[in-house]
Amino acid sequence: MAEVALIVGAGPRLGAETARLATAQGMAVAVATRGAPKWDVSVIGARAYACDATKRDDVERLFESVSRDLGAPDLVLFNPAGRVVGAIESIDPKDAARPLAILNGAFLVAQAAARAMVARGSGTILFTGSSASVSAPSQQGPVAMYKFGIRGLAQALARELHPKNIHVGHVYPVNSIAELGPPAPGDANARAEEIAKAFLFLHRQHRSVWAWELGVAPWSSGIL
Question: Residue 38: which CATH number?
Fold first, then answer.
């Protein structure tokens, strides 16, 4: 049977490119978004599911549905994002709570994935990070809180789950992700399709050399 990939937070750039690449590699692909996907999922033969990853019941239903329709996921990518920018004295606490809800969603998705994968004895759980995962930017305290939190979750899970044959990885692009289409002259932003290759690279790694974290940046950025 084909491997099953579940992408939670499948936007039209990184999520979509990862879904396309996984499909091209022969995987059955499920994409989960809060609302309707912003791209035509049917073009690549993927299946779309509605899920608010910050809600436990939604996440449980998602994994039950995907397992019923396609099989238990071999690869789960947690890819939602949230951005709140502003001086600490002016940020509305309600706005700051949104990124923290995404962090809770990362836990819920990882827990559901781990339960299924530990029972089977194999699988890969990946998280999308950013430069804010390792270096907190000014006026982005809420973003840094949830990105640092997701990185910490990934590290803890790697220590816990690698010995159980579950590969856990955290991929953080340093630059912004380029818009869709051919790159404009001088555009040094990261390409979504290339980051997708990094996800699948981690999934395909031999377990004797598993990496738990991969930082990626364009050539023009120098070192990470």
Answer: 3.40.50.720
